[in-house]
Amino acid sequence: MAIELFGFSIGKKEEKKDVKITTFAQADDDNDVLSVSGGGVHGVYLDTEGSIKGDNELINRYRDMSLQAEVENAIDDIVNEAIVTSKDKPVIHIKLDNLNISDNIKDKIRAEFKSVSKLLDFQNIGHDLFRRWYIDGRLYYHVILNEKNVKNGIYELRVLDPRKIKKVRETKKEKLPNGQVKKVYEEYYVYNEKGLYQQQGYSYGTTFTNAASGLKISPDTIVYCHSGLMNGKRSSVLSYLHKAIKPLNQLRMLEDALVIYRISRAPERRIFYVDVGNLPKLKAEQYMRDLMSRYKNKLVYDANSGEIRDDRKHMSMLEDYWMPRAEGGRGTEISTLPGGQNLGDIEDVLYFQKKLYKSLGVPISRLESEASYTIGRATEISRDEVKFTRFVNKLQNRFSFLFDELMERQLSLKGIMNRDDWKLIKNEVYYDFENDSHFTELKRNELMQDRMNLMRELEQYIGKYYSHEYVRRNVLMQNDDEIISNDEQISKELEDSRYGGGDMQFNSNIIEPEPDKELMLEDTLDKKFEEKFELKKEEKKLKETINDILSTIHKDD
User: Fold this and answer.
1) In-domain check, residue 508
2) Same domain, 490 and 553
3) Do residues 357 and 364 lie in contact, with contact meaning Cβ atoms separated by under 8 Å?
4) 318 with 458, same domain?
5) C-alpha angle 277/279/284, rounded to 5°?
6) Beta pairing class for 215-217 and 181-191
7) From the centroid of its chain, how far is CA 401?
8) What is the pLDDT of residues 69-111, one digit of tens each?
9) Strands 92-95 and 430-433, how do they pair?
10) Residue-number span of the structural domain to which 480 is assigned
């Protein structure tokens, strides 16, 4: 079977089967694709809808948002729950229990998955990769091969800036022999080191026109994984931060307004009502300025020299007010203007903070750093924590598409299986992320306790109504790896004197069931009833015999 990848052909070529399908709808692959028309200048593709401009602006906005304190804390909570780094355990491992293939192929798939994880350096920088994918909403990798030895698989993986690469779907028209026109789609990536678009004030583009210009790259050399969130037109990929744009802007605007109000209304200011008599307007103003400069002294501490000097400046809103008062009214008077009331009320700020956390899918309880974290049963965990755990699981499942794409290329290059075969089995392949969530730990302990109780109840029926393998797989929920590992450990413990040495016997397939005491008791009772019934029958026959004898004697008399 020939494997065609990256322009290379490995193995013997086979004739492709002719498959004819008819449809009026274009396949929806949920990818961020720029649709263009063929026939243009090579290397320059017109973006009529401005999608490149919009994507780059959104990515820059997402990255700016991630630097805000509240958003950064929420992102850290999400990423820390999704990617758990441990010194003695891998961050992620592959599960092949549902695959109906040979153990040899399974071992090869596991080995290639370890090599792919090593190429990503996922054990060390998996946290950063997941964070980048979560913020930008997409992640691009360039697959690099060793052209001298393609069968060794992927040589290197390099991450790409999503603002410098774009997937393009070019539409071409071909004329059929019957005169009809057929549309043919060609997909590829366009990459430009300096960026695909530039707007005034930004430094990531090369031109001021809405055009995608750059290097044309084959789709096989690019691994692309996105968030799965699309805009209303399904023409652009969004980040999970997109829902928090409005709440964050509202929170920042409210905080700025609150600071300005408090600074301007917090201090108490004096109001000087100065009696200017019948002075003309100009002389009254001059008189006021003289009084202000005479009685107004502002002491300022100079940190450089350590001196206190008189710093007289023009009056601002935070200083005293001077008001002239004409003759006929009251004389000169000094009063105070009270400061603002309820300056410590921040309920509106807290409301928008909670709204921001809700938009990011993080429980409100994590907003309060002083809130205590109680340890209890899984049934006592709040609903928000349950929803958050499911949200993180959804993110992990979506991020695992990256490993699907990498495994497809790696297995094809190594000749383990072709790409069509992998597409048939990849839905049965699962990726298990390491998790230290408290809720998950509690739930696991409760499930284990329930399984042990059920195991005790089924113990007398094992080997009679249920097989041992069925109990291990469906009651104890052990997978292939766990069954093999436990059998090996039990065999080793049988030879260890600390666990009984040779006195113990182990058979992973046969477990002698204990005799059923209830069944034995029922058999004993049945026997007693039968014996009693036989006695009654004999007594009845004896009575009938005696009655016959007595009746005969009576007739003779």
Assistant:
1) no
2) no
3) yes
4) no
5) 100
6) antiparallel
7) 12
8) 999 999 999 999 899 887 778 899 899 988 888 889 999 999 9
9) antiparallel
10) 440-503
